[in-house]
Design a protein that fits this description.
Elements (H helix, E strand, L loop, with lengths): L1 H10 L11 H12 L3 H13 L7 H60 L11 H46 L5 H97 L5 H55 L1
Subcellular location: Cell projection, Cilium
Keywords: Cell projection, Cilium biogenesis/degradation, Coiled coil
InterPro entries: CC_CF (IPR051885), CCDC113/CCDC96_CC (IPR025254)
Length: 337
């Protein structure tokens, strides 16, 4: 009997832990897990108030929670789409405002450059009205040309829109309308292409960085090349000056070599003369010495004779000059008489 009771108790269904919780606690836990907004809380409170008298099973509670989660996900997706649309619109407005601001800034700069600075009269210092009017007329003509260009572009886009609508209508009539699966496939392909575009952009950015680094390295090498070129020019000029100095040294070396050869030849001759010289005998030396003394005495006597002759010549020359002057005076007196 005990075994049968134990078996019977083992086959009894176990209590669900969610049954031990109240509806408020379950709702609170769901709110903490799902982060339900305030208005959703009010809806849940209203629903709980309506169905408070009902006792839900665990499966029903799970189904309700699952439906709530799905609804919240749908609402979140819808909010995301609406937010993305708002963000795109704001981005478009900001881009348009930036473009308009850039255009106004450019117009202000051109007006300041072409009118306020260039259109001043040299005498009065005021702005010339004709140049201002001409500037605004040019601006109006440019704006009219832009309007005409945009009008043509708008008409072209309208024609393209009509063509696309006609093609879409033809596809609808032929049963070639795209289904949701096709749109999903297009979204997947679009996301793949966007990933590829991002990869290409990353590659482009990497190549730009590489190009910048390469340009920096190239500039550094250009600076080094310029420095080395200047150093090479300096070395070339120094080498040319050294070559000139070396040629001068070679010429001087040749001259010195010739002088050395001449000196060696002279030295050889002197050595030969020294080797050929013989010392005379003593008697011959005494005789030569006596002859030399006699010659010196003779030279001195002749020098004295020359001095005496010069003195006599001077005396005679002076006497002759006096006699000549006397004869000239006598001749002049005779002519005068």
């Amino acid at each position: 009997m005990a075994d049968n009771e134990s078996v019977a108790t083992s086959h009894e269904p176990q209590d669900d832990p969610l049954n031990d919780l109240s509806d408020e606690e379950i709702q609170r836990q769901l709110e903490e897990l799902l982060h339900i907004p305030l208005y959703e809380k009010k809806v849940k409170v209203e629903r709980r108030r309506r169905y408070r008298h009902l006792r839900l099973t665990a499966e029903q509670k799970c189904d309700i929670a699952q439906r709530e989660i799905e609804e919240l996900r749908e609402e979140i997706e819808q909010l995301k789409e609406e937010s993305e649309k708002v963000i795109d619109n704001n981005k478009a407005v900001m881009e348009e405002a930036d473009a308009r601001f850039a255009e106004l800034k450019k117009s202000s700069y051109e007006f300041d450059r072409d009118v306020l600075k260039a259109a001043h009269a040299s005498r009065t210092g005021r702005v010339v009205a004709e140049k201002v009017i001409r500037y605004f007329e040019d601006r109006i003509r440019a704006r009219d040309a832009l309007i005409e260009k945009l009008r043509l572009k708008n008409s072209t886009l309208k024609v393209q829109k009509k063509k696309l609508n006609l093609q879409l209508k033809q596809k609808e009539e032929m049963g070639e309308v795209l289904h949701e699966v096709d749109f999903q496939q297009l979204k997947i392909e679009n996301s793949q292409y966007l990933e590829k575009i991002d990869e290409r952009n990353q590659d482009l950015l990497r190549l730009k960085l590489m190009s910048g680094n390469t340009l920096q390295v190239l500039n550094s090498y250009k600076k080094k090349l310029h420095t080395l070129t200047m150093e090479s020019d300096r070395l070339r000029s120094e080498i040319s000056s050294r070559d000139e100095l070396l040629s001068k040294i070679d010429i001087e070396t040749e001259t010195v070599e010739e002088e050395r050869t001449k000196a060696e030849e002279l030295n050889r001759k002197l050595r030969q003369q020294l080797e050929d010289f013989k010392v005379p005998e003593v008697v011959e030396y005494v005789q030569e010495k006596a002859d030399l003394d006699e010659l010196q005495k003779t030279v001195k006597s002749w020098e004295r004779k020359v001095e005496i002759a010069e003195m006599a010549f001077k005396t005679n020359h002076k006497t002759w000059q006096q006699m000549r002057s006397t004869n000239e005076q006598t001749h002049q007196w005779g002519l005068m008489a």
